[in-house]
Amino acid sequence: MEFHKTYMVDRLKQYGQLLLRGDIATIRRKAFALLLSRFGFLFVPVLKFGFRMVRKPLPLIFRANDPNAGFLKAWRSYVPKQSDQEVVLFRTQDRGPEYDLDPSMGWNACVNGGLQIHIIPGGHLDMMSMPAVRVVAEKLAAYLDNGSNLKESTGTA
Questions:
Q1: Distance of alpha carbon 114 from its chain centroid, rounded?
Q2: Of 152, 156, 142, 151, the residue nearest 86 (C-alpha)
Q3: Which end of the chain offers a freer environment for a tag, N or C, measured as fewer CB atoms within 10 Å?
Q4: What distance in Å separates the CA atoms of residue 67 and residue 71, rounded to the nearest whole number?
Q5: Which residues are CB-contacts of 116 (< 8 A; sequence separation ≥ 6)?
Q6: CA atoms lying within 13 Å on the CB side of residue 17
Q7: Prediction pTM value
């Protein structure tokens, strides 16, 4: 509940500031992205069919929110199991304040063997592009160089 409350308060502040600045275009873009991420499963299949009929590629924003896409299916169906292994978590710096409530993003509840958390610069969508991907590679290389013994690695956050 605290996560959702913090999320809502932060987003209302953001929208309020945009409204005071008169930045209606950004409000419209953010509202569309939010609606698409929450309710895209209702209309993306219809859009896919329409674009297929006119032989045009589906725009990226709709492909990213396709409820039949492998990533979304995996994300919605994944249920983490308890692990006695040590786990390494990479998370981005530019997340909403709701993510600061629990730096482990819930993974502490599943991990008995310890959790190493690395904060990566940038936002969620930047994680696999430069410069963030370089940081991930450097930190991951330390674990790979040390084999499976994570306790010997360096550079943890």
A1: 22
A2: 151
A3: N
A4: 9
A5: 86, 87, 88, 89, 150, 153, 156, 157
A6: 5
A7: 0.60
**Per residue in 2-61, pLDDT tens?**
888 988 898 889 889 999 999 999 888 888 877 777 777 777 778 888 888 999 987 776
Hey, what are 76's tokens? Answer: 């919605």
CB of 69 closer than 8 Å to CB of 95? no
Contacts of 154 (CB under 8 A, 6+ apart): 142
CB contact at 8 A, 84 and 56: no
* Alpha helices by DSSP H, 54-155: 60-64, 70-77, 132-145
Angle between helix 24-53 and helix 2-21 axes, rounded to 10 deg: 110
Angstrom distances, CA of residue 151 to CA of 84, 90, 147, 155, 156:
14, 16, 10, 11, 10
Q: How is 67-80 classified by DSSP, letter by letter?
A: TTSHHHHHHHH---
Residue type, 113: G
CA distance 62 to 67: 10
Which structure tokens are listed for 20?
């005071």
